[in-house]
């Protein structure tokens, strides 16, 4: 199995890190694209460097490299996740403006009818954001804002992050046990 992972500059780089860690632990091949602002956000919000995050992936690409495999429909993969997904990236994807490898890889994922999951990160949302999300949802893209759940009684921020990452991976068809599931009241 091969998954394309992108991290943009929206707050929440920890979601992308958690996705990469989970995929690595499951032995799944990952192809990573970090936007320039993702590099900065990783350094501001986490204890990781961009280089350490890139080491979690099987392969990583520069965002301006439109010759990279994920830019082509003939590059076989089982889905793509953008965690977090900035509104700039979401707008680019929604409007077919594939000016970098992240938006091009997402565009290809849509045209090839492969699963695409966007952990859309912004608050509050304006009408433009919502219209872009609706446009993508109508194309089959899963828009999953990383909203925490509390039914599992998280003890740490890491519990919340893993719950979102694990659910997002399941939307790509990847079974995992990195989060607690709801089994009804006890």
Describe the overall structure:
With 186 residues, this protein is of the alpha/beta class. It has one domain (2-171): Flavin prenyltransferase-like (Rossmann fold, 3-Layer(aba) Sandwich). It is built from 7 helices and 6 strands; from the N terminus they run βαβααββααβαβα. It has helices at residues 13-25, 36-45, 50-56, 87-94, 101-111, 127-138, 157-171; strands at 2-7, 29-34, 59-61, 80-85, 116-120, 142-143. The protein has a 6-stranded parallel beta sheet, with helices on both faces. Helix 1 links the parallel strand 1 and strand 2 (29-34). The longest helix has 15 residues, at 157-171. The model has no long low-confidence stretch (mean pLDDT 97).
Count of extended strands: 6
| Low-confidence runs of at least 5 consecutive residues | none
Strand order of the largest sheet: 3-2-1-4-5-6
Mean pLDDT, rounded to whole units? 97
Would you list the SSEs in sequence order as H and E?
Answer: EHEHHEEHHEHEH
According to CATH, the fold-level topology is Rossmann fold
Derived from helix and strand composition plus strand pairing, the structural class reads: alpha/beta
Largest sheet: 6 strands, parallel
The end-to-end distance, rounded to whole angstroms, is: 37 Å
CATH architecture: 3-Layer(aba) Sandwich
